[in-house]
Each structure stands twice: as C-alpha cells, then as structure tokens.
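hey can u run this one w/ pyridoxal-5'-phosphate bound, need the structure tokens asap thx
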Amino acid sequence: MRKKLLGLKFSEFTTNKSFNFNRKKILRVLPEKYLLEAYKVISNWKKYKRTPLINLNILSKRLKINNVFYKDESKRFNLKSFKALGGAYAVEKIAKNRKKIIVSAATAGNHGKSVSWGAKKVGASCKIFISENVSNTRAFEMKKLGADVIRVKGNYEKSLKICKDISKQKGWKIVQDVAWKNYEYIPKLTMAGYSVMIKEISNQTKHYITHVFLQAGVGGMAAGVVCGIAKYFKKIPKIIVIEPEYANCVMQSIKYGSLKKVNIKKQSIMGGMSCAEVSLVPWRILKNAVNNCLSISDKYVPQTLAMLAKKKFSNEKIIAGECSTPGIISVISCCNDPLIKKKLEINEKSNILIIGCEGDTDRTLYNKLYKIGNQKLKNYD
Ligand SMILES: Cc1ncc(COP(=O)(O)O)c(C=O)c1O
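ok here u go:
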C-alpha cells in the first residue's frame, strides 16, 4: 500500500480561533420552526424519498476509520442535487395564495434548476440569470423545466447583480440562495430545506457522527447542515468546511474574523463552489460553528469522480458530480498528514460524514472528467 493514499494533499488548513458551537445561538439565527416546517412540507411532496446514506466501506477500511458515510444527493428527486430541497421549497412558500407570480434567480446551475422546478410545480413563470461560466448543458436543463434563461457577460456575482436590477424594475420576486442586507427570509427558507438532509441522516444510522466535511460556495449548504446538526444530532461532531483553493471565502473570513471577499484568480471546475463572498446569514452561523477550514485543488477532482464510479471506495457505484468529490479528497488528505489527522482526532473510532451534494448534473462535464480521471487511475495501476 502506498504511504500517502493517491498522493492527495490539501492546499491549506486553518483552525477557527472563534470556535464555540452553541445550539441555542445557531437556532436563534434559523429558528427551529423553519426546520420543522421545511421537513413537513418537503417530506409530503410527491415522490419524496430520503436519499441513500452509503457506507464507503472500502475507503474506511483503507484509512482505518470506523465508518465513512456518503449522503448521495444524486438521488434527490429527479434534480440530482441537494439544491432541490432549497429553491423549490422557497418558491412554494412564497407563491402560496398568489396566482400570477414571476420568480427569478441567479445561479451556477443547481439552484436555478431547483427554482425552475419549483416554479413549474406551482404554475409560476421563471427567469434565470446565468454567467459566462455556466455550461449550455446546465442552461438546457433549466429551459427544459420551463424557465427563461438569460445569459449575462461576466461571472456569478455579475449575474446576481443583473438579476437584482432587472427583477426590481420588472417586479419579479427574487428567490435567491444568498442573503444580503434586508434580504434574509428567502435564503433562510433554502437553508431550512437543506437541513432535511440531516433530519434524514439522524434516522439512517445509529452511529454518532464524529466529523462532518462540508463543501462551501456561499456557505448556504454548510450553514443549513450546521442548523440541522444543532437541531437533530445528540452529539456535536467536528465541522470542517472545504473550498476550492482560489475561492476560499469562508476560510479567509474565518481567518480574519469578519466577512472577507476574495478575488477569484481562477474559476474552479467545482462551479457551484466557485464563490467570492460568504452569504450574510450563513456567516452568522459558520463563524463560530466551524472547527476548521480546508482548501483543495481541482486537480484531484477527476480521479476521485472516476473512483466513485468504479466502486473503488464502496460496494456500490456512485455517480458523483464535481462538487461531490471534495469530501473524499479532504478526508484522504487529512489522513495523509499525521499531524492534522491527530489534531482532528480522526482514528479507528471515527464515523465521518461527507455530503455527495450532486450527481451528473452537467453530463457533458461529468463525461469529460470521468475520462480524464479514468486515464489517471490507469497510471496508478
Ligand atoms: C452541487 C453543489 N455543491 C455545493 C454548492 C455550494 O453551496 P453553497 O453556495 O450554499 O455553499 C453548490 C452551490 O451551488 C452546489 O450546486
């Protein structure tokens, strides 16, 4: 066996000096009634089924860890990502009793798909703004759900600005997964939707989770999961946030103790996570709830995606999109570094949770990455 599994290394690791997990404080930011209502509504949707919690038994054996659990969000309705729990739920809540409503959103892909699906379900019109970085495959998926897709010159931040400006002019209701000053209610609904993952997990295993590795873009998913942990888990695990190395806005903000915008020098192939700024409500939660932050390079994404598909980590084949790979990359990287492994207290008693937040939501990209990854694996054999 190679000493460093697959040669994986994280780019940067930091410890949160302001760590102080406080259930009550967290649930003051996103009150329990939001979480309970989200579960009640979503679990009553037609075709609702909890997503699988897969045991990555081959990986855990190799790393000498008790369990590594993978929450497989590729099976979330037909949308193939956890975002189906957020945007669509928010649309349903705000569309109640309003006949003619036009909703709008800016997106890297998955949130827009969720909003489009939600709008279709309630009979609302839908306008989705995308940046230059969003693929045609993703745009097509949203069009298929009935949305008008508007492409904007520039990056995600630009698409959000234009979405805000045009929506204001036209009176469209913005359903965004990012919070800003005086715009908090709808992003809170999306986070409450994401907490459903933790409600499900709390009934899917009897093991106490000891570590959770959470991907972050603007931090909505990570914060929604943290709220779920505060509400549904008896014991609080260590919480580690993962970001792309050039889009590490949570890490930078944690390091400096206040919100810090990063200048993205290079967009990550993990498109949903390539964000420059932490969202306001998630920040209030993450700033004290996160133990550590990790950043990783894109270069490990293809081989990890291919290994999941080729049953190298589990008995089951897993279709994992680019944003689903960071958890595995991070767990292996931490185990490859004896000091960090010790610091995080990862050992044979650990039950680690990682979120497989999307499947092949962009099939074209998935096929391309799979090919590259498969080739890399041949070099290992
Ligand atoms: C698949 C996937 N994973 C992770 C993220 C990051 O979520 P957040 O921006 O809420 O941190 C996104 C966001 O679009 C995503 O689509």
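The first strand starts at residue 12 and ends at 15. anyway lmk if its weird
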